[in-house]
Task: inverse folding
């Protein structure tokens, strides 16, 4: 039995993994899908204090209070920033890192550094809620950005997406234990369309290690192709 912790991306909550989590649990595995503070069902906790470090602590607390070890830690999109920071500070609890069409930061990078044009465009449509600058507001960010086209899925998502604190995207990642962090095995599950835009050296290493899989779908691959994502995740414990 494996233990999966699935971290959502910007504006999403743990709800976005419902379909993937169901498949993993039916296969006999433990699955945690934490929602980060200030988004999703925790949107009522939004404040100007929430940044990348705050979200890293959110996930570390799940690992500690659930007493989790040898975790397969996955992050989607912005969640790649979070899981990298978590693995840096809780290395002894992480058995594998999985980047789901995610940011793959290095020390000193923010998401705004990695995707400057996208973040600038999102910030231009931002707002202030509870004293916090927020972006990715539902109804202002077009749903095609998430690569979801099914009308039922769009309706479901629009009822759950929330704005996201911009500080999370602007704060630079500070790594303290890089030697140990980069020894953790990594798998990259990416959308076919984004593969050409990713770090060639990182993708080449992942491919050589047999840990690069691409799925021909939109950015929210856990919603549009949950079976394919789950199939990839299920390979990890036995690979």
Result:
């Amino acid at each position: 039995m494996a233990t999966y912790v699935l971290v959502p991306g910007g504006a999403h909550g743990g709800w976005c993994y419902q379909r993937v989590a169901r498949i993993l649990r039916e296969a006999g595995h433990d699955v945690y899908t934490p929602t980060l503070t200030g988004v999703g069902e925790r949107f009522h906790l939004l404040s100007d204090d929430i940044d990348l470090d705050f979200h890293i602590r959110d996930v570390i607390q799940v690992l500690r209070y659930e007493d989790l070890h040898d975790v397969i830690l996955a992050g989607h999109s912005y969640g790649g920033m979070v899981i990298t920071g978590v693995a840096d500070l809780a290395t002894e609890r992480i058995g594998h890192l999985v980047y789901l069409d995610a940011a793959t930061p290095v020390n000193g990078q923010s998401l705004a550094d990695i995707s400057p044009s996208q973040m600038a465009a999102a910030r231009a449509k931002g707002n202030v809620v509870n004293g916090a600058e927020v972006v990715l507001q539902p109804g202002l960010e077009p749903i095609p950005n998430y690569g979801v086209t099914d009308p039922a899925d769009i309706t479901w998502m629009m009822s759950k997406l929330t704005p996201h604190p911009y500080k999370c995207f602007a704060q630079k990642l500070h790594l303290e234990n890089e030697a140990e962090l980069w020894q953790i095995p990594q798998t990259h599950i990416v959308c076919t369309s984004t593969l050409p835009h990713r770090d060639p050296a990182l993708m080449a290493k992942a491919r050589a290690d047999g840990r690069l899989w691409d799925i021909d779908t939109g950015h929210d691959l856990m919603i549009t192709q949950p079976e394919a994502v789950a199939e990839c995740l299920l390979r990890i414990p036995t690979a």
In short: The longest strand covers residues 94-100.
